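Q: Peptidase S8/S53 domain-containing protein, please. Structure only.
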Amino acid sequence: MKKYAGLMLLGALLVGCGTPGGPGSGGSTYTIRGNVLLPSGANTSLALTAPGQGEGSVDAARLETLWQLPHVRGEVLVEALPTDGLGSQALSVLSGVRLQAVEGTDLQIAATPAGETDEAFARRLAQAGLHVQPNFVYEALSTPNDPGFPGGNRPGVVVRGTAYDQDYLTRIDALGGWNRLEALGKPVSGVLTAVLDTGVDTSHPELAGRLRPGFDFCSRLVGDTCQGTDANPSEVTVGDVGHGTSSAGLIAANTNNGIGIASLTWRGTVLPVKVFGADTATNTSSATSASLTAGLRYAVQQGAKVINMSLGFAGQNGQPAQADPALARAVQDAANADIVLVAAAGNTPNQGLYYPASDPNVLAVGAVSKDDNVLSCFSARPLPGQKALDLVAPGGQAGTGTSNCYTTSPFDILTLARVQDGSYTLRAGTSEAAPQVSGTAALLRAAFPDLNASQIRQALKEGARNTGAGAMLNVLGAVNRAANMTGTTPPPSGSAYTLTVQALQGGQQITAKTFSGTLASGQRAAPYVLSGLPAGTYELRASINLAGKTYTGSAQATVPAGSSGNATQDIQTR
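A: Structure for Peptidase S8/S53 domain-containing protein:
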């Protein structure tokens, strides 16, 4: 396999090495449900309050929503039963009910009387002035069932007859980070992340529901010049084919879906921004200052919170003002827009950090070999006067330790390839290291939306693990640093809210539903259910009004035709 391609035209170089249509609706309808998450996390406990009644009473519409969510059947969770002073109605409702205290909490589990539904029992308890909720069942996030995730009995992903796994996820402690987020009640998801690259294979099943429409800023390459733009950001057909698909997959491939690989964000969203064009005569692809600058400004306009650039060139020692003034201005504007910018450091060890990785506004990511203490033989090193590598991450072994650096190795990075090329492959390059940092940044921004880009950068760097090769990306460390930074005050107990959730396709509303209720102490999420939807991919938009403030957010959800009938998608608000 060809593991490195020098694709420089007009100075643009991919710093990676290596080698369309939505679901139909059929005749059935489906349900999308989940939680709308307030800034700084979530918890699914809710007090049930009806309009015009006291706290602890119940709204039938809210109960209908709550009890459709997965919960332990045959019981109701009751909060803070007082030791005395229960009203006669509460005493009557609880008479003969089996109660079990939940050790270490102020909760009691009340067994639902025979012949009564959990929902009806909860209604009676709430009308008696008690705080009640379902005993929700959570899905463990810690070990995705994707065969490429390392450990257990998972078989790996077969590439050219040999099974490989994603050992790099273990080395950066992705599992520890996901577990920590779960323990904090935070979403394991990702904010909108723009991937400036060679395009993306939009037909890849691992990217179904994970892509925004995107744009192509280099429709064709004429000589050295990008010409034309269009709305189709599909992969280039020559050169380092599959490069952009690989980057997108490392960040946001569908996870816990029983196939292929796991991604850093599980269910994040990628904005594919194609900035490379193809030259069939030379079998190469390249970008230009014009296409990169236009792509970067487009990503800002589209609301990306993280931008991954697995590309660069080694011009003028990589100093931004000398290297590419037009792109440098766009980078500065993106940084001013509170976006985390990540770039691959470069794939030649003696030419310094490539631009834009060398820009002070950008996190420069180098690659480590199979040994975390050793930079991969191809990974760029800073020249005198340049900044240091901000972070390193696994980038593949390639020919590290041999006389030929640019070759293949079984210790390279397992990632996505175009469907027509087998869907999965091994790649090596700082292009594969950078998306791991971008994916972690997207993970942090979704879980801690009150932190700005500078704080996310700080959490990534301070949470890193010190190695002989530099500051090694550590997802758990980054999560812990971000958690220590956040200081958002939860909404006050008893805050009434109004929530509206819309489902759209092609910008047109398919359905919308409004919910109302009251948050319990520390509550940071409100559930929603949208029913009667045809199969397909939807943009979900949520707006929740709470304590005089309005929080909004969006997400994508896909219900495949012939599925079990449900899709689950949380919506993070800001």
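A: Brief note, in case it's useful. DSSP finds twelve helices and 32 strands in the chain.
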